Amino acid sequence: MKKLASQSAAVLLVLVLLPSAAHAQFAGAITGVAKDASGGVLPGVTVEAASPALIEKVRSVVTDPTGQYRIVDLRPGTYSVTFTLPGFSTVKREGIEITGTFVATVNGELKVGALEETITVTGETPVVDVQSAKVQQTVGNDVLRAIPTSRSAGGIQALIPGLSSSGDSGGIRGGGGSAASIHGGRGNDSRTYNDGLNVGWGGGGGGLWGNMLNVAAAQEVVLSTSGGLGEAETAGVTLNAIPREGGNSFSGTFFTNGASSAMQGSNYTQSLQDQGLKAPSEIRKLYEINPMGGGRIIRDKLWFYTSYRHISTENSVPGMWVNKNAGNPNVWTVDFDKSQQAFTENLDRILAGRITWQATPRNKLNFSWQEQIYHQNWKGGGTATQTIEATNRDWFEPSRLQGITWSSPITGRLLAEAGWGTYQSRYRNPAPRIDGTFNPRMIRAQDQAGEIPNLVYRAPAGVGGGYNHHLIGTIANNRASLSFVTGAHNMKVGYQGGFNNPSQTYTYFNEINFVRLRDGIPNQLRQVIVADDSTARIKIVRNLVPTSFYGQDQWTRDRLTLQGGLRYDWYLTNYPDQTICGPGYTAACAKEIIYPSRSTQGASWMDITPRIGVAYDVFGNGKTALKVNLGKYMEAIPATNSDLDMNPIIRTAISTTRTWTDSNKDFVVNCDLSNREKNGECAAMDNKNLGLEVFDRTYDPSFTQGWGKRPYNWGLGISVQQEVAPRVSVNVGYFRNWWGNWYTVDNRAVAATDYTRFSIPIPVDSRLPGGGGGTISGLYNLNLDKVGAVDELATNSKNFAEQIENWQGVDVGVSARLRNGLTVQGGTSTGRRLTDACALKALIPEQGQGTRGGTTSIAGGSPTNPYCRVVQPYQTSIRGLATYTIPRIELQVSATWANNPGDDLAANYLVTSAIARPSLHRDLSAGSVFVNLIAPDTVYSDRRNNIDLRIAKIIRYGRTRTQIGLDVYNLTNTDVVTGFNQTFVPTSKSWLTPTSIQPARYAKISAQFDF
């Protein structure tokens, strides 16, 4: 530990001495050059930026010896810039719009004259950032309130080309959402921020886990997609919601909208009925109430802003109904009441408060607090393949966000910033629904065939025969930075860190908590570590401590800007004492397994990663920029039960599956479950370590400890941004990502020779590509004498073979904010992914494609997945928005459009021993396996096209503004299918039956009152 501390101190010293980037990570800047009439540069010019967005009203700097200046840490808003120098006339430039981290170039030409003479220069707001290689998209508050969107993170991201979010058609699924992925990235690579503080879950990931980002109360939402320097934690999307602040004048907004079933049409077409959709999806109710406002407590000193948001939704589930046998432990069949369609519901509530305090002219603090409640399916539930009673009830209460940020322009050239925030969440899944179907002793079941293949019913995964699940998470995030800004040369050093300790508690009620059936006959069970009609309790606690220091540097000389960054990351995990109560086959809690923290293995990764950027003002007029960025970024590691979780309980076998042959169909397990070998109706355990004080997975220290071991990816971006007309820009960029330091898991208890290779015939079926027929080879099945032998080693896959994964593509974007009231944003994103793990597949059949960073790769890891090399075709996403206010009558018209690729389709075929035996020459070790009959990324569903429209009348009276709007979603009433049952049954028409469709066209009435 002393050696590690000295290493960390040395790295910190290097970074403190290293210059860095000019502006705050989540704020904008204004930069430029002051010259005289002859073109000579003018040092010593006082440059002031003034805006109502600044609580101190004015921020000032002085030009450096090269005549350059830079004003940083600017909130979104409209600014005026004033240049003053004794002996010269004052020059003032007005109407400069700052959004996100945009760097606006504003030059000043001073003429000899009286100081009291002010020359006001008119000009368009710069739309091309010629000094930053970062790529970002900004959606401002004016656009948010103008367009037909859900006003959620997911709804906003659905407007950005290339982002994985597909939106939710006006908010029918509630107000949640977190940072999506882009350019082939994973969700874990993205980050969700509120006022620059990470509010994602655990040690990684953009997911919020019950935390609803309050986008509706944001001044603007900034999405950075490429080109982050040292302060960027990962290469993925960074979504930052910049909250509104109060002002000296009291102002506020009251917003509400809603829709009912009577306001929706029908797209339940004959085509959908022919495809097998038994019932459509319909809105039962949808409404939102959102008052917010703020103002001064002390003029120019203390401001406040507060917001409350309440969203409630109910929607019917396509193809699912009430199960009349729900809650009956003696019945193992489903009896649907076709007169009662299943429905889901969401309830979101957010109460937020924010205090802004200008403690001194150079010290500003923000205090924020949010209380949130998220409920889902407390009286409903269900999906197209899951009954109501088998659906989890999600209940986050409370979720809490707290934060403090501080910024101080110590001098005109020195800026200090710091922030501290926490996210606390309590997730509980113990309570019965109000429909009375709750029974903690019910066993969850899945029927692989039947009317709905792979239908799950009887009990949810989180209650009943499964377990009660409680989760408490506390995430603390800290940041601090110091920027030295001269104008031509700008530096920044900073720290990011935190502490995350998610805690989960499981309570098992039955020794058997899951049964799989085929045609109503059980064929597999899952057993857990509890017997004698008692319970077992398991508590899992993790500590994750990410620590980072970074430095950045930026030089601007003439038209060229060079950026560089270096980041040190130390990722540490450890685990307090862990206890399993009631393991094995004794009475509950008669025996405990305790894993002391001192004996527990954890990760300790240290990395130094470089990032560079180049921006070039091609013609020197600030209208054309060439940008290049290249950087190495660490993969984020999720805090949940991933395959990279070294918690001793996760590495202990607390459950296992085994084949069950219920020959007399009495649903009674006639075998000794404590016997790990084959006996009675039970085959051998798939993991014979169940209940033993042994780890069934070991982590290679050479992979989990030390420098340069953590999974990573390199990102490259090359783009050109051009101002094609005043306030109109076009951006074209090429992007490439490639990944490294994959890890894989090798079961050392078996060898490649312990698997038998076999093939299966493809059924002849006109629905399959080419009509079916032929064979699928390259399948593996574990030999029967090796079933249950588990001794896994997680290590770098390079110890076995090379794996390849990369993504490349081209984005085209356009942004226009014209003075006539027209705003247009949108573009296209085209790209493809390539993965290849065939060399690894040959050595480790059970892993196939392997995993990286806790995330299974695209082709998955399975002995019966023969597709070890996948090359996607190029896919294009098209998205955009437009809004226009008709003068005089003040009628606002806006629309959004999205055209996205369809689903990659599969035909997951249940292969029984009878099918495999001719090639395998024996029974399958697990009785049956699934094999996809269609190679990945070869067959796709129809593209998804959606247009939403909004028409709103603006009414003004004095300082008030009222807007009454009508939103129409799915304007063309398309009936496109958005989800499919991809289980292939040759004798059934169930394959590719729709499981979800685009909601039918519906209208939503909205009203907004601004004062």
Structure description:
- By secondary structure, the chain is mostly beta strands.
- Among the domains are: 15-121, Carboxypeptidase-like, regulatory domain (Immunoglobulin-like), CATH 2.60.40; 135-243, Beta Complex (Ferric Hydroxamate Uptake Protein, Chain A, domain 1).
- The chain is 5% helix and 49% strand.
- The radius of gyration is 30 Å and the shape is globular.
- The chain starts with a helix and ends with a strand.
- The relative contact order is 0.11.
- Residues 1-24, 202-206, 583-590 and 848-860 have low confidence and may be disordered.
What brief labels describe this structure?
mainly beta; disordered N terminus; five-stranded mixed β-sheet; Ferric Hydroxamate Uptake Protein, Chain A, domain 1; 49% strand; 22-stranded antiparallel beta barrel
Mean pLDDT: 84
| Weakly predicted, low-confidence segments | 1-24, 202-206, 583-590, 848-860
The appropriate CATH architecture of the domain at 135-243 is Beta Complex
Largest sheet geometry? 22 strands, antiparallel, barrel
- Shape designation: globular
**Tally of individual helices:** 7
Distance between the termini: 59 Å
Which percent bin holds the helix content? Answer: under 10%
CATH class of the domain at 135-243: Mainly Beta
Give the class from helix and strand content and strand pairing.
Answer: mainly beta
The CATH superfamily of the domain at 135-243 is: TonB-dependent receptor, plug domain
Report the portion of residues in β strands: over 45%
CATH level 3 topology of the domain at 135-243: Ferric Hydroxamate Uptake Protein, Chain A, domain 1
Q: How many β-strands, per DSSP?
A: 59
